[in-house]
Design a protein that fits this description.
Strand order of the largest sheet: 1-12-11-10-4-5-6-9-3-2
CATH topology of the largest domain: Rossmann fold
Shape: elongated
Number of helices: 17
Number of domains: 2
CATH architecture of the largest domain: 3-Layer(aba) Sandwich
Number of strands: 14
Largest sheet: 10 strands, mixed
Radius of gyration: 33 Å
Amino acid sequence: MARGYALHHPGFPARDEPRRVRPDAGRTPPTALPASPSASIGQIRFANGNLATRVTVSPDEDPTEVIRMLGVAPPKSLLLLIGGADAMEPPLHARVQQLFGRGLVPAAAECGALILDGGTHSGIMALIGQEVADRGHRSPLVGVAPVGQVAFPDEGAGSPERPRAKLDPNHSHFVLVRGDAWGSETHLLFRLASTLASDIPLLVVLVNGGAITREELLQAVRRHWPIVVIQGSGRLADELATAVQAPAPPAGDSVLAELVGDGDISLFPLEGAADGFEWLVARQLRQETVLKLAWQRFASYDANASREQSTFRRLQFWILIMGVTSTAVVLLQTQLERAGVVAPRTFPVYLLQTLIVAMVASMTALIAAASRFKAGSKWILLRANAEAIKREIYRYRCRLNPSLARPKGDPEQDLARRLKALGPPRTGSEPLLTALRSYKGLLPPPGGKARGDDGLSPLTPVRYIHFRLDDQLGYYRGKIDTLDRQLVALQWIVIAVGGIGTVLAAIRLELWVAIATSIVMAITTYLGYQQFEARLTKYQQAATDLENLKAWWSALSLEEQSDYRKFDTLVDGTELILQSEVSGWVQDMKGAILRMDARHEHERSSGERQ
């Protein structure tokens, strides 16, 4: 996604005062043992009195072990700072320093962020180190660099043929990677960032930058990490900002085209207000976006729908079991009395009668509970609303793709309006009166998105087809196979039990025919509320429609596929097919539950008469 911000102080919401943190926050003594024989742990004392933890590891070291050796406290978010500022003019350099000191550093402290950068006393690394130190070292600052290219405090700067960069004296931790060339640390740097940000927000900030930064930025884009570019800071940052704002994707530069086409990029002007930059960084680190809120609402509805579905199915299972079992016990008592095995008014008879009463009472209570809690209706409504929210999420993510030139508009405001229009689940004209348990898991929820999809980044046509259309198509195909096997098996059971009932009637065991009939009715009821045949029909129709839509898209030329209107047609068509399938399922399930409730009421009345 590419966004431009023109931020000024009066328009921002008030912020709480950042919490005070001790200067040694995020640090622990380096007591951990090295992860491998080639790794070492120590400390670096700088002339300013700062004592930093240092680990020296090979490029292929396990990042989890590196984090353990560093001893950093688990952060709440992660800032990855890339680029350079050595070639910037003094006024621009001073402006970046203001954005860091009054924007980025306070936001990092407020959000409990760990800052990850190159660790040398040059460019933006020296700037961020000084600003973190000036504000009390409230954020751990970890530098990653090749050991062959840096100089320790008591070492010289190397020879003119092979100069070494000094380590920044204000960093709290260093990861020195065994290597003699710049770039040998990049692989471990991104593995560290990926490990640290496995379950916390991550933001990449780009200032200026050259060839190495370009490769680092490409790695960030391929991991679908959000990026804030300081527009006006020079070189790569300005080149990228110009390409993002261009009406057409850049031609002749495949790397830049990938950065623009797939990157989740926000632009912030170098002359923008520092507190506006702080707001933007904090907002990204907290991930308080409309998309994040939409996923939160989906996750809440999805989790509660699953809970209601489980309750509904358990109640129906035990109602059916109690119905069949009570019928069997009544027939057993009658058969025993007729055969003279037990005499009337004896203890065995009283025991069987008590068991019958208990079963009938239990079945009555279960039916009353099903009627009172309406788990089936809640499940249907919550599931329908969850799927509606998911459709809007995918539409929104498709609109964020900057490689497809679109008319101007604010996708976030449009998503917010659509979410508001969906509103809470309703039963007819009344809101659904039930307490929704809060969802506290990962966002986006793992079960709400396709495998390999982060759920947040913009979707190109290829990624939309893979993560949405193909994923749903695979779901329908799998369900069709599973439901067909189950339906055939249950139908054979009904046929077999019916045949057994016929045999029982032929050998004059009419009383036991009722058990066979009861079993057949229970299976029929189960088939009714599971809606096997209706679901099979709708899944087959939806799968066929999706296959036809995919075939239409594949037949388009590359030029046509790059037209946002064709992409919108693909997205709208896919989401309409999915909406139609869900709407049909909702109507079928409502009718099935009404019929089932009437049947249960009849069974309860029959049980009471027994």
